[in-house]
Amino acid sequence: MAARILIVEDEESLTLLLRYNLEAAGYAVESVLRGDEAELRIAEEPPDLVLLDWMLPGVSGVELCRRIRARKGTERLPIIMLTARGEEADRVRGLATGADDYVVKPFSVPELVARVGALLRRANPAQAASRLAAGDLEINRETRRVRRGGAELHLGPTEYKLLEFLMLKPGRVFSREQLLDGVWGRDAEIDERTVDVHIGRLRKALSPRGQKDPIRTVRGSGYAFDETYGAG
Ligand code: CA
Fold it and tell me: Any idea what the CATH number is for the domain that residue 14 is in?
């Protein structure tokens, strides 16, 4: 499952260049031109990392960075600031607003892509982990094998992806639309009810002997991997 990067940049040629290179590196990329638009998008669905231009129409990058840090749920959202200002004082100011990293334009695109990877690994070690576990449930992301209490479970490819997606953010509730985007891809033309069908299959595959259900249904919202699963 690809990490989602949001580019907030009003220079469209730069956005195109970044999008092309980040997608080639395997990331899912979204972009917006304005600071205020970015703020709405982030509140709606936080990405895994933000590339944030300093000078933006709407809300400036510095101000947006401050707001992201002040908002509950996005305090630790990884942010790399992009800026034309190379002065040492500005560099310090950029980091002081809470950005995790800072790149001065014009920058080397491969270097930026490397910094994105490094920051993502630092921010979310689970994303890079080859093994995810909760209680008696364990998935090996390299072999795509799933075990429960040591016994191998047999999941279809879509059920596997759903489980991996949910287990990467235990406790977080995903709407059917978010699951469609994350598991099937944004362009898939699939009915939201399909999600329910696959969640049903996943549950069946996870509990062949009627064991405890690690997936939580949140009425009116969607589904989550139960963060208390295996805790007692
Ligand atoms: Ca700009």
Answer: 3.40.50.2300
